[in-house]
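Methods — Computational structure assignment.
A single polypeptide chain was analysed. Its primary sequence is given first, followed by the predicted tertiary structure written as structure tokens.
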Amino acid sequence: MDRIEPRLSRRRFLRYTGMGAASLGLADLLAACGGTGATTQTSASGNPSPTPGFDWASQTVTGSFSFGNWPLYIDTKKVNGVDTHPSLDLFTQQTGIEVTYREVIEDYASFFAKLHLLLGAGQATPWDLIVMGYPKWLPLMIANDYLIPLDHDKLPTFQANVAPKYVDPPYDPGNRFTIPYMSGITGIGYDPALTGRQITSVMDLFDPAFKGKVGMFGDTEDMPNLTLLGMGVEPKDSTPGDWNRAAALLTKQRDDGIVRQYYGQDYVHALTTGDVALTMAWSADILQLQLSGSPQLRFVVPDEGGLLWTDSLCLPILSSHPLDALTFMDFIYRPEVAAMIVGYIQNVSPVPASQAVLRKQGSPVAESELVFPSDAMYEQLHGYRVLTQQEQQVWDHTFEPIYQS
């Protein structure tokens, strides 16, 4: 599978979110936030409806829209040596709406900075539809009133096919501004031949028996939140006291020599070469490795739980083609279309019915619980701590020195 390394790069970019934010002055970006946020209304159908300020009833399909996304984050197929995107082509064939698709996101920090510069000055962005991430950047967009509230009466396919786990998320109550594009699981990847036993707990990452053979992410998102879970603390309910205890545990892990390295995009290489026996990992990475020559590797959602991250689709304010973009958002919730995308990306699909489509096609992805989690696995997956401006500064000050030193 020669596409594996490029596909991995999309999620690995997130490891540089913290470093990019630091170079851009995250405190300044956060200080700029704090939009008012309006109350949610209900439409005649009972769905959340847009608040005053955007008139969906006056919108018409224009026949085109622009979509800004990560590199290699949609189904891709070479035709006569040229990369094409079958799901986008099918959308155009069936609706007549042309899509200008650009891979413009290198990391969320710099992408948010570009959006903030334009939207904060009252200028439209080049994109009608974007992908934005939780836990940090999507709340910033919402807080700044940078997103168009969705008209859920125009999202019937989403309503019919979305997995319950993604309805009414804590970072966007009522899916008022977003619907999920793709998700993934943060847990532990390991090589049983090197660990000598099954890995079942977050605390295995802190076991002195694996001194010098443990990989950790060098970030302020996955590393602190997974550690909190290992301590028995629900991240969303955690307090600064919990953060200090987690930081002390992580500092001891580092000082005792248990951590070989705080990894960015190279943790997969460290695992496949045996530099580490176990490491924090993302589900899609390990699945792709299993399917491409490393079947011995394992991914586990620890007994204390794993983390479910979500990248969402949303509409920046001042969009020139919002109804065209909203039509596409609903389109990808058709099971056959969702199967096209998730069959290529191999992250967690928010459309459970796409599993049957992939199963008919004989795709090995269809049988993976890392793409289609069972209800029992979903029960083990937790959200991240969503932080206020003041909390973010305290959080970063608490956890950044651990891996930056």
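Note: Residues 1-28, 32-52 have pLDDT under 50 and may be disordered.
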